[in-house]
Please model this.
Amino acid sequence: MITDLTTGNTKKRLWAFSIPMLISVAFQQVYQIADSMIAGRFISEDALAAVGASYPITMIFMAIAVGTSVGCSVVISRFFGAKQYLYLKSAISTIFIACVVLSVILTIFGVVKGESMLCMLQTPENIFQDGTTYLHIYIYGFIFLFLYNVCTGVFTALGDSRTPLYFLIGSSISNIILDLLFVIGFHMGVAGVAWATFAAQGVSCVLAMIALALRLKHLHTTKPFPIFSFHLLGKISWIAVPSILQQSFVSVGNLFIQSLVNSFGSAVVAGYSSAIKLNTFSMTCLSTLSNAVSSFTAQNMGAGKNERVQEGLRSGLFIGLLVCLPFVLAYFFFGKYAIGLFMKSESQAAIQTGVWFLRITSPFYFVAMIKIMCDGVLRGTGSVQYFMISTFSDLLLRVILAFVFVKGMHMDSVGIWLSWPIGWTISTFLSVFFYWMRPWEKKKKQICN
Model:
């Protein structure tokens, strides 16, 4: 269902639009968490650590897919809000062609350099081989991940947050079933976890592309649209490239942090792997809500209804508060049980590592939420340089402080976890300040002109 976000009550519109997106990302994170849970409980603690060791590298690929999705979503939202369907369809075909080419290049690079990247991260020897196996299979399926995220971005731009939900529910359930079948039934080990994800993502990608093609038939144009346009690719890249860089630099920063974590041994790696999956669950929910705010903002900017932008942010902050609360309560007070889902009870050192991470970081989710919502508005208005500055500040602080606390002050792994809330707090002040500046009101040229 295509939804026009430029009319009606702001809070009700954003609620109705964002809730299916939040449910979608919940299912997506559940099956990613299930990968680690099944690896830790039905294979071994080392298997869990192996999946976790490759996680920062896979997140670089995910960052490119998500950043591209965000970029195309903002541009297509503008065209949809302005009812410029010819440009809209041309932009969609352009981004799909560009993504196929880019995904092939990145897949080749990942297969050739994946093992070298694990070496660079000082991956412990006892989990290196399994980590390599998981990483290579994941990279083989990158094209499915890439194109599926673009489909999701287009659906979101059209105000349709329900269709991606249906695909993710099916994908999540099938991924978990295949995990259990390959690991428990066929005894495929870590490779079984990876192939289950590959198969589930592949089917979801194909079905999403078919559904999108059928949906676009309802947007009538008076003449044929260009299949590929360098002009529109430039417009999409103006938003997408900073989004990709923002996502990628965060992932690159996580590579440095992962190398620091790896130096403490496989037990700490396993605990961190569990905790970071739970942390990613909460942060991805907030980022998804931020994407909803971006689409809301972009549609209204395209329709010339700039006064609704502030209303969208207020509604986003309110929903974000409700999203944060259960995560904070669960992680801070019941973190031991949450981490215990990933591994057997005898893995006490790993469990304690994860508990400390969650107790230190989770109270600051409220702070991070404010930053992420402000970033959603800045991105939706095309003011991408500002949210990049705040995000890079967060990243640099986290990496630098983690090394200072561990290498300079000789703290244990807890020193790494302390860098998260400090980075979030400072970068939140920057994002709020940039929003308060209202840079989009000074722009004379809009992206649809």
In short: Residues 20 and 162 are 5 Å apart (CA to CA). Residues 444-449 have pLDDT under 50 and may be disordered.
